[in-house]
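README, section 4: Worked example with a bound small molecule

Sections 1 through 3 covered apo chains. Here we extend the same pipeline to holo records, where the ligand is supplied as SMILES alongside the sequence. The molecule in this example is calcium ion. Nothing else about the input changes; the structure line simply encodes the ligand pose together with the chain.
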Amino acid sequence: MSQLAILLPAGIKGWCWQSWQTESSRQRAKVALALLRRDCSMTKSILFFGFLLVFLGLTLPGTQGRKIPRCELVKILRKHNFQGFVGKTVADWVCLVKHESDYDTHAFNDNGGKSRDYGIFQINSKYWCDDGKTPGTSNTCRINCSKLRDDNIEDDIRCAKIIAKQAHGLTPWVAWNKYCKGKKLDSYVKGC
Ligand SMILES: [Ca+2]
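The generated complex, written as structure tokens:
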């Protein structure tokens, strides 16, 4: 998208300059006026569509990842009844997300080529989702891993709950075991 934005002005400049050169000298003033008044209306149209494409590329929902502010995540987790789910608190889950993905819905990690972790909950392709390149995946959540890297975390939440339910807790998440288990976690929901 950014390349398009850079190329457009150069293309427009070339088009106008070509029109200018094809006319005889006595016609140039007339052409210049036409370019400004009418002919270069195409320039405006191209610019408009160029900016529209860049704008859509930046704002289309579901295509880009984003960092979810801590308190927004707390609100989402409370709404989805995470408090008390599998005997854990919302603070446990916020701590888990902080240390697995740093709240980034677009987070991705390659585990030495054997499997990959996707999204805000860093869900693994060996057991829970299918990325098309992890042999023998269980795909227990019945989901394409790419869906776990967009900014709609509804499906991520559904899958995370399946994982926690099967494990009767949050032990499948290495970061939770390391940074959250048995720790004082009040700060993760403080002020929310
Ligand atoms: Ca998703």
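What to look for in the output: Helices lie at 2-21, 25-39, 41-59, 70-79, 90-101, 154-167, 174-179. The pocket of calcium ion is lined by residues 147-148, 150, 152-153, 155-156 (CB under 6 Å).

Section 5 describes how to batch many such records.
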